[in-house]
Automatic annotation (TrEMBL):
Domain of life of the source: Eukaryota
Main subcellular location: membrane
Membrane-topology descriptor: Multi-pass membrane protein
Keywords of the record: Membrane, Transmembrane, Transmembrane helix
Similarity field: Belongs to the SAT4 family.
Composition bias type Basic and acidic residues, residue spans: 397-414
Domain named Rhodopsin: residues: 21-271
Species assigned in the record: Terfezia boudieri ATCC MYA-4762
Region Disordered, annotated ranges: 286-331, 358-414
Lineage: Eukaryota, Fungi, Dikarya, Ascomycota, Pezizomycotina
Sequence ranges of Low complexity compositional bias: 358-369
Listed name of the protein: Rhodopsin domain-containing protein
Keyword Transferase belongs to the record: no
Length: 414
C-alpha cells in the first residue's frame, strides 16, 4: 500500500481506539444508563469519520487523484467521454462532494459533543449556560450553511462533474473556493467560540500553576484543529493540480486531530486512575521485595511509611465529563468548582459547580439551619459576590492552595 493509504487508515484506527477508550471510561464511571447525548454522538462521528476515510482513500486509489479541475481548455475539448481518464475525473469529482459532506458532518458532530460536555461543565452558572445555548445555535446554523454551500454552490448540480466546457472554479468540488473558504471560516469561528466557554472558569481557578496550565492546554486543543484547517485551505488553494488529493488527505488529518482533542477530557480520569493503580502496585511490590530480602517487619514498615506521601493522595482526575455532579445552591452569589465523590465503588473526585449564600453584612459568620446543618455565609465589604474556584481532594477536604486543609463544607442544595 502507498504511504497515504497507510496513514489515513492508521489515523482512523487510532481514533476508533480512542473513542472506544472514552466509551469505556464513561461506562466505568457513570454506567451505560447515564450516558449523555455526546456519548452516542461520538460513536456516530467515528462511523462517519470511517466513511470519510474511505472517501479519501477512493480519491487516490480509484480515481488517481483526479477531478474536473487542473485541465486546460484544450485538454477538456480533446478528452473523449467514456474514456478511462474521463471516468476518473467524473468519479473523482463526485467523491469530492461526498468527502466534503462527510468531513463537515463529522467535524460538526464533534463540535456538538464538546458543547454538550461544556453544558455539564457549566451547569449551575446562568451566564455560562446561556453561552452554551448560543454554541448550540451557532453550531446548527453554521452546519446548515456549510452543507448548503457545498450542495448549492454549483447549479445546476450536474456541473459539479462537468468536464467540457469548463464549468468554472465554483463547480470544481476539489478546489472550489466556496467549498474551501465557507467551511474554514465557520470552522474557525465555532472553534474559537467553543474555546471561550471553559476559559473563564479555568483562568480564575484557584489551582496550582501546573494543574491550571494542564487544564488550559487540554481545553485549548481547538487551536490545533484551526491550524490544520488553515493549512488545508492554503494547500488546496495553492495547489490546483493536486488539490483533489490534498483535500482528501488533509480532511482526514483534521478530523483525526478533532477526535483526539475532543476525547482527551473524557479519557483523562481513566488515565490517572491507571497511573494511581500502577503506583500502588509498584509500592506493594517494593514492600514485598524488602520482606523477602530479610528486612525485619519493623524496617519494612518504616520503608513503607517513607514511601507514603505526607498528605493524603488526591485523585487528580478530570471528571468534568461526569454528569450529575453539579449541585445548585440558593442565591446567585459565589460560584466555585469543588470536588465531589461518586460513591464507595468509584470514589472519584469530581469537579462540580455549587453556589454559596452571600450575605450583605460585613465579616464571616456561620449559621445553622433548622435541620442542624451548618452553612457558611461569605460576605464582602460591598455586599457583592466574589468568584473563586477550588478543587477538593479525595479525602473529603477542600484544597484552595493556601494554608492548611479544612474540612469540606456541605453543599447548599435546593
Amino acid at each position: 500500500m502507498d504511504p497515504f493509504t497507510i496513514e489515513v487508515f492508521t489515523l482512523w484506527g487510532v481514533s476508533a481506539v480512542v473513542i472506544g477508550i472514552r466509551t469505556y471510561a464513561r461506562w466505568s464511571i457513570v454506567g451505560i444508563r447515564k450516558f449523555q447525548v455526546d456519548d452516542y454522538l461520538m460513536i456516530i462521528a467515528c462511523m462517519i469519520y470511517g466513511l470519510e476515510t474511505g472517501a479519501g482513500y477512493s480519491v487516490g486509489a480509484l480515481f488517481r487523484g483526479m477531478a474536473n479541475n487542473g485541465m486546460t481548455d484544450e485538454q477538456r475539448a480533446t478528452l473523449v467521454p467514456g474514456s478511462q481518464e474521463w471516468n476518473w475525473r467524473v468519479g473523482g469529482s463526485k467523491i469530492q462532494l461526498i468527502g466534503w459532506s462527510l468531513w463537515s458532518t463529522a467535524l460538526w458532530l464533534l463540535k456538538i459533543c464538546m458543547a454538550v460536555f461544556y453544558s455539564r461543565l457549566t451547569d449551575g452558572l446562568t451566564v455560562m449556560r446561556d453561552r452554551v445555548r448560543i454554541a448550540y445555535v451557532a453550531i446548527g446554523v453554521t452546519y446548515i450553511a456549510v452543507i448548503l454551500s457545498i450542495m448549492l454552490g454549483c447549479l445546476p448540480f450536474h456541473k459539479n462533474w462537468q468536464i467540457y466546457p469548463d464549468p468554472g472554479n465554483h463547480c470544481h468540488p476539489a478546489v472550489s473556493l466556496i467549498n474551501v473558504y465557507v467551511p474554514v471560516v465557520f470552522n474557525l469561528v465555532t472553534d474559537l467560540y467553543l474555546m471561550t466557554i471553559p476559559m473563564p472558569l479555568l483562568w480564575r481557578a484557584n489551582l496550582t500553576p501546573k494543574r491550571k496550565a494542564l487544564l488550559l492546554c487540554m481545553f485549548s486543543g481547538g487551536v490545533f484543529i484551526m491550524m490544520c484547517s488553515i493549512l488545508r485551505c492554503y494547500l488546496i488553494v495553492t495547489s490546483p493540480i493536486t488539490g483533489a488529493q490534498q483535500a482528501g488527505s488533509w480532511a482526514c488529518r483534521e478530523t483525526f486531530v478533532a477526535v483526539i482533542i475532543g476525547n482527551v477530557p473524557m479519557i483523562y480520569p481513566l488515565f490517572l486512575r491507571v497511573i494511581k493503580k500502577a503506583g500502588n502496585t509498584i509500592n506493594a511490590s517494593r514492600l514485598g521485595s524488602s520482606k523477602r530480602s530479610g528486612v525485619s517487619s519493623g524496617a519494612a514498615m518504616e520503608l513503607n511509611e517513607r514511601d507514603k506521601p505526607s498528605k493524603p493522595l488526591r485523585k487528580k482526575v478530570n471528571p468534568l465529563s461526569i454528569p450529575g455532579l453539579t449541585t445548585l445552591g440558593r442565591g446567585d452569589s459565589e460560584e466555585r468548582i469543588i470536588g465531589s465523590r461518586m460513591g464507595k465503588e468509584n470514589n472519584i473526585v469530581g469537579i462540580s459547580v455549587v453556589t454559596e449564600v452571600t450575605s450583605t453584612s460585613h465579616g464571616h459568620s456561620p449559621t445553622s439551619s433548622a435541620d442542624g446543618r451548618h452553612y457558611q455565609h461569605n460576605s464582602t465589604a460591598y455586599g457583592g459576590p466574589s468568584y473563586t474556584v477550588e478543587v477538593a481532594g479525595g479525602d473529603g477536604y477542600t484544597h484552595d492552595g493556601h494554608g492548611p486543609r479544612s474540612p469540606r463544607r456541605p453543599d447548599v442544595t435546593r
